[in-house]
Design brief:
Length: about 130
């Protein structure tokens, strides 16, 4: 894999340098069948990362974990103000890591950096904060 790209910060370069698994039931796990796919930088054609390919068995595990969490996990037991606090915290983290996330978007799909930055800000300001305030 190569993550050489002018203007990419250390955090984004580090992120692209490792293999990525699936987040299921709070754990990073390899796909059941071991399949990964290459992610290419559309500007250069270079493989910048390898990502787990979730297939039916992985989806079934993820859905079962989500159902368990929804029915008996922490989130449904939280008071609205506690949920809001967590959503505001997520929005703050998105803003804190906006440059890194935007750089990854540029590498992944060729968006101009200015568009990618607005997209990250939009998630924080248009989705997370209003959801928290609701």
């Amino acid at each position: 894999m190569s993550n050489l790209h002018s203007g990419v910060g250390q955090a984004a370069a580090h992120f692209t340098s490792r293999e990525h698994r699936l987040l299921i039931d709070g754990h990073w796990v390899a796909p059941v069948d071991g399949h990964y796919f290459p992610v290419e930088d559309p500007a250069t054609g270079l493989v910048i990362a390898r990502v787990a390919e979730g297939r039916a068995a992985d989806v079934d595990k993820a859905v079962a974990a989500a159902r368990r969490s929804f029915e008996s996990g922490t989130w449904p037991k939280l008071k609205p103000n506690e949920r809001a606090r967590l959503l505001y915290r997520l929005a703050d983290l998105l803003e804190t890591h906006a440059n890194e996330l935007a750089e990854l978007e540029v590498l992944d799909n060729g968006k101009p950096l200015s568009f990618a930055l607005r997209g990250v800000a939009g998630i924080a300001d248009i989705q997370m904060r209003p959801s928290a305030a609701a």
